[in-house]
Amino acid sequence: MRRLLAATATALSAAALLAFPGHASAAPSPLPDFDFSACPAPPSNADPGTWRCEAFVSQGVLTIADREIPLGEMRLTFSEGEVDGKYAQVFGELRHAPARIRDTFGATLQLKYGGHSDFQSNDERRGELDLYAVLRHPLLPKECTVGTLGAPLHSVVKDDPAVPFEVISQNPKTVKFGVVDAQLALPRTTGCGRLSQVADELLGLPSPSGKNTFKQTTYVQFKPL
């Protein structure tokens, strides 16, 4: 009888593990390849030994009202350190391939750097970045954008509780975290010619602050300069 009970318990345990696969250890996600080729050099008056380059690799999603646009991979680099004992930073590069917008007859959206960034985190936000988005389609002029370099979209990102900060590696230092901007305002399109109204209607623009979200899951690796 004892052998029968033991065998039954073993079988039930195995069945439980199969029924609840969350109990098994999940394989870690592979790290992206980090590219430091666009790291800007520290300024000539930089404090020696304080500067490092940060290479970001993000997967982003932009939601405009009820339309979700997967943005795919975005890459960003900048350098930070001290000058005369005070924090300083130099922007490097933002790279983003055009992302297809579903149900828009082949239109794509590509994010571009808008000329301002501040990656010094504080208690209120993780950082801020000015952007504009190039809207591409065979029927649209190449100047068609959401926001412009002169009047960019201002994104202030906060920590996303759904993707908590995590140290992946200490050598080289690599971290993962999520950020979200739930207050991003999106204006009407600019430079879209005769199809401006069509482009606006397809994207649901303008869309005021509070109706949109910009989310990113980001890996960052650090390199001393």
TrEMBL record:
Swiss-Prot/TrEMBL keywords: Signal
Protein name (database record): Secreted protein
Span of the signal peptide: 1-26
UniProt lineage: Bacteria, Bacillati, Actinomycetota, Actinomycetes, Pseudonocardiales
Species in which this protein is naturally found: Amycolatopsis decaplanina DSM 44594
